[in-house]
Amino acid sequence: QAALPPNHTIRALRSGDYERGFLQVLEVLTEVGNHTKEEWLERFDYIKRHNHEYFTIVITDDVKDRVVAAGTVFVERKFVHKNGLVGHIEDIAVDASQQGKKLGLRIIHALMHIGAKRGCYKVILDCSAKNIPFYEKCGFTQKEYEMAWYV
Ligand code: ACO
Q: Which atom of ligand 1 is nearest to the CA of 105?
């Protein structure tokens, strides 16, 4: 397992990460929107109330007091596999200036560990073709196809 750079921490999302630039880090993924603090807290509080099935983690640069990487695993409850659990990895983002330093790998390995500890029989994710080599390096293998319907 790759070590974190000095003065970096991996931990669960905190409400104060609004000020540490968590939402700005997500901008490498897609449009995020300008959340007021109240809008942020609405979603943060929901995730916190559901902290047995939503796990959002971050890596912080503790010198700059900024979030530099983030990711989520969501635990789905199934009937198949005898009430089996499936982990869904979502919204993996590393600040553009910090990519290529193994922060993404650390986030994915931590989310895989959380999924396994929660009892998931598999952890899955959707990604673009260009990110396949990254996820393969994290230990994933390609399977099936993604389908989407936008409302
Ligand atoms: N192609 C080939 N190899 C890659 C790629 C790539 N696109 N990206 C990373 N790798 C390799 C690295 O070279 C490294 O290999 P090594 O161990 O042999 O040196 C290994 O994968 C680990 O790379 P990291 O340094 O951990 O990658 P990084 O911290 O940059 O995180 C990530 C990768 C998350 C894709 C980041 O670049 C990023 O945020 N990109 C923009 C947003 C994005 O695409 N997020 C993923 C969306 S899919 C989802 O959320 C489920």
A: 26
